Amino acid sequence: MKHRIVVKTLLGTGSAFAVAVLGGLLIHSPRVEAQSLRSELRAPGEDDWRIQRGFAIAPVKLKLGGKNRALVGLGSYLVNGVASCNDCHNGAPPTNPTAAWLPGGVPYFGQSPTVINTAVYLAGGRDFGPYPAAGPFPHIISRNLTPDKNGLPEGHTFAEFTTIMRTGKDLDRVHPTCAGAPDGTCLPAPIDGDLLQIMPWPVYQNLTDRDLLAIYTYLSAIPCIEGDPGVPAPAGGAQPRCQ
């Protein structure tokens, strides 16, 4: 009985503190956080139907070693069944948006069941065109959300991921605010170039700490895909992400 009371207390009032502390630890070890939240953030039987559904709709083989299965399942449900992240982060070329699906499984052709093209799943590269309008403005291209060789989604720690989702801050600073006339690489004022302009983070910031942790844990469990079209390669050339 005492154990149940302690768990209930953690779930009721301390979950944000637990996430903050473990989020910091994740900077050094992404597995520590996933293994340590089984009692703090999940009551027995909570969200079972969403977890089960999440595993059922995950389109790729998941790497579950050292991860909290409940968080992975819930994360899949949120990514694939609610937020529809792959609609923007699927890497399909703008001339052929249906490339996000495999032939015979394209829902917009009336084909069923749908079959996601796992070769571009959450790999980024969707070009939204010049922003905010046609002219000397940069193209907004979605980022690669798959984990890097260290198991970090898009190379970000959980603390960084939370900052992105809560505030929209573009930690890569791909499109800064123009200091002068627009030249195709910057965004004109009053647009804040430090913020992601197309990603719906103003909606995602309303998710709970546990939801964000579940999404992050799921993204750390999917296969890595090379490249990140949304981020310019450094001067020395892009380094392999998956090795």
Set out the fold topology.
Layout: H1 2-26, H2 30-36, H3 48-57, H4 69-82, E1 127-130, E2 139-141, H5 158-167, H6 201-204, H7 209-219
Antiparallel strand pairs: 1-2
Helix pairs in contact: 1-2, 3-4, 4-7, 5-7
How would you describe this structure to a colleague?
The protein is mostly helical. It has one domain (2-219). The chain has 7 helices and 2 strands, in the order ααααββααα. The protein has helices spanning 2-26, 30-36, 48-57, 69-82, 158-167, 201-204, 209-219, and strands spanning 127-130, 139-141. A two-stranded antiparallel ribbon has the order 1-2. A hairpin with an 8-residue loop joins strand 1 (127-130) and strand 2 (139-141). Helix 1 runs antiparallel to helix 2. The longest helix has 25 residues, at 2-26. It is globular. The N and C termini lie far apart (47 Å). 33% of the residues are buried. Mean pLDDT is 85; it is low at 1-28 and 36-40.
